[in-house]
Design goal:
Elements (H helix, E strand, L loop, with lengths): L5 E3 L4 E8 L6 E6 L2 E5 L8 H14 L6 E5 L5 E6 L5 H8 L2
Parallel strand pairs: 2-4
Antiparallel strand pairs: 1-2, 2-6, 3-4, 5-6
């Protein structure tokens, strides 16, 4: 069964992420209200946490950062991310499983 935080779209794959900035390490913590919960070291100031999230996802999923787009949640802890890369839901699920 596909988790609520992962959805296939016409363009690519959409992730629903709950971001916890200012943590000690960058890591997947689990889920929070149906979102994938990720802790980030960067603070939520001057877009630093958003940039850190995109860089971290790029490294984890091994896709170029230019293929990862913040669709909504620029100033919120809950973010919608879309992956415009030739990547399967199964690979994303395996790589980002809580």
């Amino acid at each position: 069964m596909t988790p609520h935080w992962l959805k296939q779209t016409d363009i690519g794959i959409e992730l629903s992420i709950y971001c916890q900035p200012g943590a000690k390490v960058n890591k997947i913590v689990g889920t929070h209200d149906g979102h994938l919960k990720i802790s980030l070291k960067q603070p939520a100031m001057d877009n630093r946490a958003n940039e850190a999230l995109l860089q971290w996802l790029s490294k984890q999923l091994r896709i170029p950062q230019r293929q990862i787009h913040l669709i909504s949640g620029q100033a919120s802890k809950v973010k919608r991310i879309e992956l415009w890369a030739p990547i399967s839901k199964e690979h994303v699920l395996e790589t980002l499983k809580p």
